[in-house]
Amino acid sequence: MSLIVGVDIGNSTTEACVAEVEGSGRAYLGSGLAATTGVKGTVPNVTGAARAIERALLRAGRALEEVDAILLNEATPVISGLAMETITETIITESTMIGHNPQTPGGEGLGVGVTVAFERLAARAPGDGPAIVVIAASVDFEEAAAALNAAAARGVEVAGAVVQRDDARLIANRLDRPVPIVDEVTHVERVPLGMAAAVEVAGPGRAVRTLSNSYGLATVFDLTPEETRVVAPVARALTGTRSAVVVRTPGGDVTDRRIPAGTLELHGERAKRTVDVNGGAEEIMAALRRVQPLADVVGEAGSHVGGMLAGVRETMADLTGDAIGDVRIRDVLAADTFVPREVRGGLAGEFALENAVALAAMVRTSRGPIEQVARALAQESGVEVVVGGVEAEMAVRGALTTPGTAAPVAVLDLGGGSTDAALARGEEQVATYHAAGAGDLVTKLIGSELGIDDRELAEHVKTCPLAKVESLFHVRLEDGTVQYFDAPLPAETFARVVALTEEGGMVPIPTRHGLDRIRRVRRDAKRRVFAVNALRALREVAEHGTVRGIDFVVLIGGSALDFEIPELVAEALADHGVVCGTGNVRAVEGPRNAVATGLVEAWGRERGPAAAGRSAAPAAEARS
Amino acid sequence: MSGPAVFLRLAPGEVPAAALRELRAGLEEEGVPCRVLPSGPPAPVAAPGAASPVCEAPASAPADAALLAHAAACASPVSVGLGLSADGACLHLPQLPPGAPLLSVSLHDPDPERLRALGHNAARLVAGVPLKELP
Description:
- The structure holds 2 protein chains of 2 kinds.
- Chain A is of the alpha+beta class.
- Among the domains of chain A are: 1-76 and 369-391 and 594-624, 2-Layer Sandwich (Nucleotidyltransferase, domain 5), CATH 3.30.420; 81-87 and 259-364, CATH 3.90.470.30; 95-253, Swiveling domain of dehydratase reactivase alpha subunit (Glucose Oxidase, domain 1).
- In chain A, 29% of the residues lie in helices and 30% in strands.
- Chain A is built from 16 helices and 31 strands.
- Chain A has a 7-stranded mixed beta sheet with strand order 7-13-12-8-9-10-11. In chain A, strands 3-2-1-4-20-31 form a 6-stranded mixed beta sheet.
- Chain A is elongated and about 105 Å long.
- Chain B is globular and about 30 Å long.
- Chain B has helices spanning 17-30, 65-75, 112-127; strands at residues 6-10, 34-37, 81-84, 88-92, 103-106.
- Chain A binds chain B through residues 103-104, 141, 166-170, 173, 470, 472-473, 488, 491-492, 494-496, and chain B through 25, 28-31, 93, 95-96, 102-103, 120-121, 124-125, 128-131, 133.
């Protein structure tokens, strides 16, 4: 009887399991998990591996000295990269619009006039035409209202106001004749004076109608057809807001231009195609399908995508000592997304939704310094370390310990950097495919689409269910049910959408998006990455490229622990008549520990690592 | 009978008028009515859910802003109360312990912006809008 430890060094986690092996019998005693240290397949992994082994042994109640062999997977470095290329940009030159949604605008209706500084209002004579008064934060609301009333009494027409403080209703309530007022305009000092302007405030629950309509703007400002074409983006940007200000400056212009995002050169083994990143994800992925199998991808120098691809290549070259020119990008995944960007030249911190393309890329090498890792681990542990077993084959073996599975089974490893498929065809052959794009890309899409810069927060949105804090004592969960609390919730969570962390914490999501919208963004991001990649990867490993021929698909890997990713993948595969579910390795581990278990399962059997593997014995002095 | 409103209780004696103005301005900007209760023993108003034992109003008008706010919250039909004394202003809910208001602003070094924001937040609790950060 021997005591064996299987170790799987993954991209983000290192897993170990301890088993007593006697002939074909396996008694699993415990398993452990630690964060991978360093890039998978490199010597710094030893620290994480030792930690995982220690934890597994602790749970098994055994000591390192009792271990007969450590089995290590043939871990090869995988470097993945992500880049976002914004392909449209809204620029307001000379500040022509303020379209934002202060919580509480004042008055109602449309006011058209010429912008006048509050201080100059007293000097204005009747007959000077209607005025749009621009009021800075230094002016108190009572003072402002009194001055507006006085001006109106003198016969000066006041058509509307633009206010810096959150004062619109306070002023409007004190006017003899209320006018539309837009407040919380942060950069009120940038509003050009003496220019034609329009202020519009819609009634409660409504949106502006004149300023969000190109012809409405043309009517208000008496525009020619040519000028109307120029202001169309203004109208579009103001759609759906409750209040808006448009100032017309002579050279003013809002442009909505497409940024040249560069090209991607996809080199297939037989064909080559150049595709414009501006074309979006669909075009890129269609071009990719046409050149499969992919040999390499090159991005245009100077573009984000080009920079990211070069960076991925460089990191891998550094790691393996290969020349940069020899490192090949083996897969890319493009996804259409949009990014809220602060409008350049805006006055109230307005955002415009810009189109963008997110791209994940991946390189892996067939050879890595795994022997060095094995030697270092043997040195560190004083135990013989055996490297061996094709990783995909081990994953299949491990996954097959899931109750209810039978060969031929396909394994989908949903990770952080890549989505990997392995299919055991017949006795000997295991087909594998590694698709770029997984959990990290989902986080990036969620972050960019919701305008969340904080990666940790985006990660929370990805992994946690949402709730809306409806009062300080209750929240409404995603499914509509209500949860009550005895102690008051933190004031900063009030009326916000929060992510419910596993530890019972509530992380407020500081956006104005409602729960439904955040949920939709989250699920769409997961679908665009995992559902797309699951099909892509399975097609590559399936015979004749038909997913229908596969009976069982077992999901493993960190992202298979997600509360909805397995369900979304299963949904995508349901059309193909595939039984798909989250793995439950050895009926206890869930989607974890598949490769480590596979290594132990294979050990000592004819195709196991002991037969084919290479072993690294600890140096004699280390053993003593 | 009165319509729904945030109640604001004042401490007996001189009222810090500037502070009162800011609190009321914050509520007005949000469009939520506010009723200022005179100082003096609280009227026996039955608030919805007044069965809660913490809602028992103290026998005599408390001088402390937190207790004033709590009594106001208990009396308010929308269960949100403000209290204002020479020392400070507090925002309170009936469910909280009287001595632990949700938010409070000291008047030792009066900051109109903070008082205005407190008024906003009283209204926002009623309106179900995320609170403003006190500057």
